[in-house]
Specification:
It contains 2 helices and 3 strands, in the order H-H-E-E-E. By secondary structure, it is mainly α. It folds into 2 domains: about 1-80; about 85-143, no CATH class.
């Protein structure tokens, strides 16, 4: 009777050893599989990044080329008319100080602007044409 128990324990030990070997093999296979996936995904992402950079670079080059071509076409179409184009709104600017005769309410006021743009005087932001008498309600002392 002792023989069957000994055989049973030997079979159990062999099964445990076989199971351990199987699990070690599964672990090694899994590690190998994960390494392959990691390399494949890594190379894919690297190539994908390079492709994206190439596409963006190509797009930017094409875009700049279109802008340069369009700019050249506009210059050619306008020709000499473009050379004479000047924005006259702010080319003739002069300063006018307040005096007893002109804008007396603005003397020593921090809000006074006093610049003339092509002959149009801007007194201040609150009263673009100035105040009618000598006591402006928005007068502030210059600092």
């Amino acid at each position: 009777m002792d023989d069957w128990q000994e055989q049973w324990w030997k079979q159990l030990e062999k099964t445990a050893a076989d199971m351990e070997e199987f699990l070690v093999d599964v672990g090694e296979a899994t590690e190998s599989f994960v390494d392959e996936i990691n390399q494949t995904v890594g190379s894919f992402l690297e190539q994908f990044g390079l492709d994206i950079v190439e596409e963006v670079d190509s797009f930017i080059q094409d875009f700049v080329e279109v802008i340069i071509t369009t700019s050249d076409e506009i210059d050619a179409a306008l020709g000499e008319e473009w050379d004479g184009f000047v924005d006259d709104d702010f080319t003739n600017i002069s300063f006018h100080s307040p005096s007893k005769q002109n804008n007396p309410a603005c003397i020593n006021c921090a809000n006074y602007h006093g610049q003339s743009y092509n002959g149009n005087l801007l007194v201040c932001a609150m009263h673009p044409h100035g105040w009618n008498d000598e006591n402006c309600p928005d007068w502030e002392e210059e600092k």
